């Protein structure tokens, strides 16, 4: 297993810049997830590492060695796609053996059999080995695709949205299996997805990609609790983080004057650059505490616009004038649509963003002090 | 506005049933969600109500009148598809007004109705735009506006958000429900997404293999699933289910999880309730949702030891896989509560939220403690 490093990668397709000065570092044995919307440059990044495309500038290192001039085969990385590209008329066993029978490899028949058996056992597809792949379900096919990557014992696994064609239940099961597999093999995984739940649930670290640039790299906890900007704040987490914009006056964000005025912590307020007159407040649904009248962060009131049952909890949409915000409440709490209810915002859990740039004010000062 | 009733509705293709003996009442002003996996017969049912699909037997009643032999156009029902199907060369205004053009309605009346609907849907600022200039969410609003402008007796929707991305779906869910509350149109909504069903439905009807499994409030379907299929189709993460057995204990019932992988004490009446329903069979399937697996970091009376495995840190909470013996349970904990894989913790099933099923048929034993 290996360490992968990208240094200042830029890739253009005609005039479109797909990747812009992208640098990242995937540790040996790490599960790294590149998360971003369609068109962010996720797949392009994987293709560059796999050697299917070449960057316009920058370098790619695997285990410290610059692999820029190496062919795809020499790089010894395995790529698993969203669409399982299996050989339809072959059995599962033949599909698994295939990558080991290439002329470049000299692997004895016993070793081939042993690796196939081990992969099949890990992925729980032993009972399917003699079946043709066109007789498999989607989940089984994706397991075989992953198996085909495993048998090669590559230095790095590259995964391009491998679960997105599967239904919700199967995704949930395979998510856990993939993570289990990665931990068991201590494999280096670079996994690409647009699904924030996949990223949060599997990653050791997440790199959020938008418009060909890395916006933030961090553990799921850092990404969730200290988003660098409003893009990360709303892309990660469900429901999306509530964002409320208002004028910044007297140390407060005036979202709805008289009704929703949120004080900025003094320590942060003191550092706000002069001239910054509008701030966006960010608060997660679980930090909007419904039913709490008064107390720290309290004394607020909203009208109930809608209530959604989510099984273990409910999500309530509140309106304060035209501003709406979502709150998580326990499943047993009875809430009437159109009623007025008190709520509080958990102090210490609020994020403040510069309205124009969307950058987290807590980050602005760090980035400034780092030059 | 209307009530809809399906009586013994059947539809088959050759020898295979697509819909089997379906009985379902949709109440006046209700938002009913037909939920099930692909191929379960939910879309066929919806299309049969709309008159887009003929049924082989049974009756469909709208406001008490049988309509199964009436043309779609004579049923006074509006249908919203997954793909918006707007006219690309017409503006949003013209698209919404389209169904009224055919009715020879007075121009002023048409204009008023279109603007009313557009305002309710918050697309009044977009009326002069063509579909190509609209976002996915706005296109879907126009499609819904076109359905509502006729003031149909009922609104039928077939996965209307299937083509939208996750964030937009989340927003549209709240909007659609609000539109429903304001318009009070009887609505039947088809989806395979249990989150959507739970979030929007007044009642959910769960289907599988052409057979209606359960109809009820979202909270009832979630808390009291009638069988293993419903139990595991609704809710995320999936309900944990393992085989187990009940044994009489000393002033309690011992619930054996798996093959003696763990034993937990339950109230004494559980054994009698199981015995009554299973006639001496003590094996059963035991189900528990992740939030009903209680976790403690210290040894606690009544809890059994387990080893933390994969931890999914989802943000507001964690999903922690717990291994005990050969079994694995997923539990939901406060975020950061279990620090790492390999930690030993103590677990117990919340008895009020533990489900007992017949291990062969999958039917719930309907035991409430």
What can you tell me about this protein's structure?
Chain A has helices at residues 42-50, 72-75, 92-97, 109-123, 138-151, 168-185, 196-202, 220-225, 230-235, 266-269, 361-369, and strands at 4-13, 16-26, 31-35, 57-62, 65-66, 77-80, 156-160, 189-193, 205-210, 213-218, 242-249, 252-256, 260-263, 278-283, 288-290, 300-309, 313-320, 323-330, 340-345, 351-354. The mean pLDDT of chain A is 91. By secondary structure, chain A is of the alpha+beta class. In chain A, a hairpin with a 2-residue loop joins strand 4 (57-62) and strand 5. Chain A contains 11 helices and 20 strands. Chain B is α+β, with helices and mostly antiparallel strands. Chain B folds into 2 domains: 4-233, P-loop containing nucleotide triphosphate hydrolases (Rossmann fold), CATH 3.40.50; 240-357, Beta Barrel (OB fold (Dihydrolipoamide Acetyltransferase, E2P)), CATH 2.40.50.140. Chain B is built from 9 helices and 20 strands. In chain B, the strands form 4 sheets. In chain B, strands 6-7-8-3-9-10 form a 6-stranded mixed β-sheet, sandwiched between helices. Chain B has a 5-stranded antiparallel β-sheet with strand order 13-12-11-14-20. A 5-stranded antiparallel β-sheet of chain B has the order 15-19-16-17-18, with no helix packed on it. In chain B, helix 2 packs across helix 3 (107-120) and helix 2 packs parallel to helix 4. Chain A binds chain B through residues 37, 167-169, 172-173, 175-176, 179-180, 183, 195-197, 200-202, 220-221, 224-225, 234-240, 284-286, 305-306, 308-312, 315, 317, 328, 331, 337, and chain B through 37-38, 165-167, 170, 173-174, 177-178, 181, 192-195, 198-200, 218-219, 222, 232-238, 289-291, 309-310, 312-316, 319, 321, 330, 332, 335-336, 341.
């Amino acid at each position: 297993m290996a360490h992968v490093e990208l240094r200042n990668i830029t890739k253009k397709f005609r005039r479109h810049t797909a990747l812009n000065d992208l640098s990242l570092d995937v540790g040996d044995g790490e599960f790294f997830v590149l998360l971003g919307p369609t068109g962010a440059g996720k797949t392009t990044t994987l293709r560059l590492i796999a050697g299917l495309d070449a960057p316009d500038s920058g370098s790619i290192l695997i285990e410290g060695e610059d692999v820029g001039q190496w062919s795809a085969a020499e790089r010894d990385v395995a790529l698993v796609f969203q669409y399982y590209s299996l050989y339809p008329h072959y059995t599962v066993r033949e599909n698994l053996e295939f990558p080991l029978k290439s002329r470049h490899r000299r692997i004895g028949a016993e070793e081939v059999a042993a690796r196939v058996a081990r992969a099949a056992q890990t992925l729980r597809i032993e009972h399917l080995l003699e079946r043709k792949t066109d007789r498999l379900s989607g989940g089984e096919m994706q397991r075989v695709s992953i198996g085909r990557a495993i048998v090669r014992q590559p230095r790095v696994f590259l995964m391009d949205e491998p679960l997105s064609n599967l239904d919700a239940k199967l995704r949930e099961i395979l998510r856990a299996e993939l993570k289990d597999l990665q931990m068991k093999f201590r494999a280096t995984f670079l996994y690409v997805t647009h699904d924030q739940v996949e990223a949060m649930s599997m990653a050791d670290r997440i790199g959020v990609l938008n418009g060909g640039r890395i916006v933030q790299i961090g553990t799921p906890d850092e990404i969730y609790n200290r988003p660098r900007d409003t893009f990360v704040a709303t892309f990660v987490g469900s429901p999306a983080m509530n964002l409320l914009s208002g004028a910044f006056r007297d140390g407060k964000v005036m979202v709805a004057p008289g009704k929703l005025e949120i004080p900025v912590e003094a320590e942060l307020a003191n550092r706000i650059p002069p001239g910054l007159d509008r701030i966006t407040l960010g608060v997660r649904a679980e930090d909007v505490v419904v039913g709490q009248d008064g107390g720290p962060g309290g004394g607020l009131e909203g009208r109930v616009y809608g209530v959604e049952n989510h099984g273990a909890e409910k999500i309530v949409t509140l309106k304060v004038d035209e501003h709406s915000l979502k709150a998580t409440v326990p499943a047993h709490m009875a809430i009437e649509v159109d009623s007025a209810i008190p709520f509080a915002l958990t102090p210490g859990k609020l994020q403040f963003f510069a309205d124009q740039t969307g950058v987290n004010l807590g980050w602005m000062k760090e980035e400034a002090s780092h030059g | 506005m209307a009530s809809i009733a399906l009586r013994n509705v059947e539809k088959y293709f050759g020898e295979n049933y697509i819909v089997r003996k379906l009985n379902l009442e949709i109440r006046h002003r209700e938002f009913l969600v037909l939920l099930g996996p692909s191929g379960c017969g939910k879309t066929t049912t919806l299309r049969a109500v709309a008159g887009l699909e003929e049924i082989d037997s049974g009756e469909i009643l709208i406001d008490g009148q049988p309509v199964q032999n009436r043309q779609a156009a004579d049923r006074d029902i509006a249908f919203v598809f997954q793909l918006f199907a707007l006219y690309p060369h017409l503006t949003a205004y013209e698209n919404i007004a389209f169904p009224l053009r055919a009715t020879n309605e007075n121009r002023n009346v048409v204009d008023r109705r279109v603007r009313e609907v557009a305002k309710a849907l918050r697309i009044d600022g977009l009326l002069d735009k063509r579909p190509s200039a609209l976002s996915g969410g706005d296109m879907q609003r126009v499609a819904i506006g076109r359905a509502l402008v006729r003031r149909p007796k009922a609104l039928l929707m077939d996965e209307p958000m299937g083509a939208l991305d996750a964030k937009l779906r989340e927003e549209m869910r709240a909007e659609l429900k609000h539109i429903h509350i304001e318009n009070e149109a009887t609505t039947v909504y088809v989806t395979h997404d249990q989150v959507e069903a739970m979030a929007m439905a007044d009642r959910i009807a769960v289907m599988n293999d052409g057979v209606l499994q359960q109809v009820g409030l979202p909270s009832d379907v979630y808390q009291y699933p009638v069988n293993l299929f419903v139990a595991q189709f609704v809710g995320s993460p999936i309900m944990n289910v393992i085989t187990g057995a009940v044994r009489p204990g000393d002033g309690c019932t011992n619930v054996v999880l798996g093959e003696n992988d763990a034993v937990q004490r339950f109230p004494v009446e559980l054994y009698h309730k199981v015995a009554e329903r299973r006639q001496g069979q003590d094996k059963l399937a035991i189900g528990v949702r992740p939030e009903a697996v209680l976790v403690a970091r210290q040894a606690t009376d009544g809890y059994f030891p387990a080893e933390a495995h994969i931890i999914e840190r989802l943000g507001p909470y964690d999903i922690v896989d717990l291994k005990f013996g050969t079994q694995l349970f997923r539990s939901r904990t406060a975020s950061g509560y279990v620090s790492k894989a390999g930690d030993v913790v103590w677990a117990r099933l919340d008895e009020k939220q533990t489900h007992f099923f017949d291990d062969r048929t999958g039917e719930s034993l309907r035991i409430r403690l």
